[in-house]
Amino acid sequence: MKVISPRMHGYLDFLTVILFLLAPTLFGLNQIPALLAYSLAAIHLLVTLASDFPFGIVKIIPFPIHGWIERVVGPALIAVPFILGFATDEIARNFYIGAGVVIIIVGILTDYQGRTSD
Length: 118
Known about the structure:
- By secondary structure, this protein is mainly alpha-helical.
- It has one domain (about 5-110).
- The protein has four helices and two strands, in the order ααββαα.
- The chain has helices at about 5-25, 30-50, 65-85, 90-110, and strands at about 50, 60.
């Protein structure tokens, strides 16, 4: 059941950007986990603004492709603490696993084929 509309997804995208920007301060992330959080905030903002849905400005990424990007990002975030070697940092590891799980759930619940124009 696709209960998240393209507009609601946009709000969640901006919330995700804010969370990644605040994560180093809120959770005490440093070094690689902090740099990654800031980088992901910037990338997520760029993808959001470049997507063809209510909050997109440039609209060059079709919304279904936006969904496929998130289908890759979610599992990648779960794997990244182990790949980048910070899995022993419990807070950073749990933050990235949690973020990945949330992105996967939002992706499953989003109607990527829904009406994207206002």
